[in-house]
Amino acid sequence: MTSSRRLSTVILPIHRWHEGGRDRWQRAEELGFHAAYTYDHLAWRTFRDGPWFGALPTLTAAATATERLRLGTLVTSPNFRHPVTLAKELITLDDVSDGRITLGIGAGGNGFDATTLRGSTEEPWTPRERADHFAEFVPLLDRLLREPTVTQEGRFYHAHEARNIPGCVQRPRLPFAVAATGPRGMKLAARYGQAWVTTGDPKLYENGTPEQSVAAVRGQIDRLGAACEEADRDVAGLDKILLTGFTPGSPLESLDAFVDFAGTHFELGFTEIVVHWPVPDSVFALDTQVFERIAGEALSQLG
Questions:
Q1: Quick one: 152 exposed, middle or buried, by C-beta within 10 A (0-12, 13-18, 19+)?
Q2: Contact 298/4 with Cβ under 8 angstroms?
Q3: For residues 201 and 197, what is the distance between their CA atoms, to the nearest angstrom?
Q4: I want to staple 251 with a disulfide (CB 3.0 to 4.6 A). Which of 82, 103, 225, 261 is the partner?
Q5: Is the pLDDT of residue 28 over 70?
Q6: Is 208 helix (H, G, I), strand (E, B) or coil?
Q7: Predicted confidence (pLDDT) per residue in 266-296, tens digit
């Protein structure tokens, strides 16, 4: 997966396929994005009371509507996924797309995904419990996508003669992009990831400065490097993905602003920067012309 500088997008699954949904994925390919991702949630934040479609069926449709564009989730989590069923769906999706799928995967959070499948008296998993589940989820999913038959008895997840034949088109399996900022997640990224994902430091989003954010992200990359060293792996071989929209400042207000932002973060070591497809009247509102100029001109301006 590794290359020096790439630009990708996230298309929220909020549009009916025949009423603009398909058009956005095809336009993403036309604009030259490296990849187009979507969020894998049951519902999400302010979009909860509006249309919100399933991530994997959306990506399957996108795979049939595009030819070159990489596709994936940012991110899937154990909050409502089981590794056995997820593996079967991912192998199918990788087949339909002819090997263009990247699985963005993380421990999940406290949103609707954490509560929808639980009874009214059940508490969502604590951060430690989420990390515990994630630490078991990722290695089992790795095995399920690599091996034709898997049996494993875990603390949280079980697989009894789970068969995944013929396996992924991408060998030995489709790539994982592991979202992580804490030490346990960093270790999983170093051990199992082909890429690492961050949104920056969430504590700085509302009240921090761009300079503080850059320093925080630099610290995350340093900790990733330490985790890779512990795993006897060269951190330079791990792609580093920044999902924008959750850091201080306004990097998408103009092409020049984005070029400055992207240049700073590429110099930190990021290989891929992801911007949200514009959604009017939302936190992702953005002038379409600016968005398309970013897609078409930003990387060439960076040299």
A1: middle
A2: no
A3: 12
A4: 261
A5: yes
A6: coil
A7: 999 999 999 999 999 999 999 999 999 999 9
Query: What are residue 239's phi and psi, to 5 degrees?
Result: -65, 150
**Helix, strand, coil share (%) of the chain residues, nearest 5:** 45, 15, 40
10 Å Cβ neighbour count for 84? 18
- Over residues 101-117, the mean pLDDT reads 93
3-class DSSP state of 220: helix
Whole-number Å distance between alpha carbons of 211 and 200: 12
- Provide mean pLDDT across the span 97-124: 92
CA–CA distance, 303 with 298 (Å, rounded to integer)? 9
Residue with tokens 């969020």: 39
Distance of alpha carbon 48 from its chain centroid, rounded? Answer: 20
Closest CA to 250 of 186, 293, 205, 220: 205
Q: Token match 């199992």: residue?
A: 192
Beta carbons of 64 and 17 less than 8 angstroms apart? no
Please give the backbone phi and psi of residue 110, each rounded to the nearest 5 degrees, phi first.
Answer: -100, 15
pLDDT-derived band at 121 (thresholds 50, 70, 90) equals confident
Query: pLDDT class for 1, splitting at 50, 70, 90?
Result: very low
Instruction: Please compute the mean of the pLDDT values over residues 199-217 and round it to a whole number.
Output: 95
Structure tokens at 191: 């051990």
Asked if 204 contacts 213 with a C-beta cutoff of 8 angstroms, the reply is: yes
CA 125 – CA 79 distance, rounded (Å): 9
Report the pLDDT averaged over residues 32-47. Answer: 96
